[in-house]
Amino acid sequence: MLEADLTIINDFEEFNKEHKLPDNFKVVGPLYAPASNNSKIDENILRIFNSESKKLKVFCTFGSSGKKEYLFEAIKALTQGIGKEWSAVILAPKAVCQIKEAIECAGNSPNVYITDEFVPAPLVNELADVVVSHGGQGTVQTAIASGTPIVGFAMQPEQQINLDNVVMKGAAIRIPIHRWNAPNIQLAIRNIIKDTSYKENINTLKKLLESSDGKKNSALAIWDYILNKLN
């Protein structure tokens, strides 16, 4: 990858403006998967994220790079103590654990819905007040596109960079992986809800995202490269 003739960085120019990049590196803007026109939200998710409910709504989404013990800490945070007062939708990827293990960890708590099925993340993000994430670029950009502040931890350097960029803009809280536990997750969620600047700042990033066209810019960067090679 480092020896490629062209490297496209699908991220905010704002996050990279102070970096001195080689000429063959092009920052083209965010590029994530929006919801398709025929996407539908599971009735169980709509039940938990009832629009008439005043409960805090938390969407917990980990990628396949997550580990079971970290997912379980998030589940405990959303089903124990103050977490019982919240509503949560939790994704339990098959690559991380068996769904029955996740449900057992939750103790059949009525305030959460746990699934290992695909969900239209952009639509579910829009229903949530906070996203709990592992920091994958797609997950982070989807949360930004929905205007939903993030509580996260990183398994890999790339994920830490993604989260730290949003943290520096005042729209997320990153918990170091060695401090990723239920009490700290709950505290971070409470701080985000208590401090309205997190919501304001994520909405500022949302406007930046909406003003760029990562898909078009990616295509143009590739096309320009091809034309230059032909000339």
Task: Explain how this protein is built.
- The longest helix has 17 residues, at 214-230.
- The radius of gyration is 19 Å and the shape is elongated.
- Helix content is 45%, strand content 13%.
- It has ten helices and eight strands.
- The mean pLDDT is 94.
- With 231 residues, the chain is of the alpha/beta class.
- The strands form two sheets. It has a six-stranded parallel beta sheet, with helices on both faces. A two-stranded parallel ribbon has the order 1-2.
Give me the secondary-structure topology:
Layout: E1 7-9, H1 13-16, E2 25-27, H2 43-48, E3 57-61, H3 68-79, E4 87-91, H4 99-106, E5 112-115, H5 121-127, E6 130-133, H6 137-146, E7 150-152, H7 157-168, E8 172-174, H8 182-194, H9 197-210, H10 214-230
Parallel strand pairs: 1-2, 3-4, 3-6, 4-5, 6-7, 7-8
The number of helical runs is 10
| Largest sheet, spatial ordering of strands | 5-4-3-6-7-8
Helix content: 40-55%
Largest sheet: 6 strands, parallel
Strand pairing plus helix content: what structural class? alpha/beta
Q: What is the number of E strands?
A: 8
Mean pLDDT: 94
Which geometry do the CA atoms define?
elongated
Write down the Rg: 19 Å
| Distance, first to last CA | 24 Å
Q: Helix-strand pattern, N to C?
A: EHEHEHEHEHEHEHEHHH
Strand percentage lies at 5-15%
What are the low-pLDDT stretches, counting only 5+ consecutive residues below 50? none
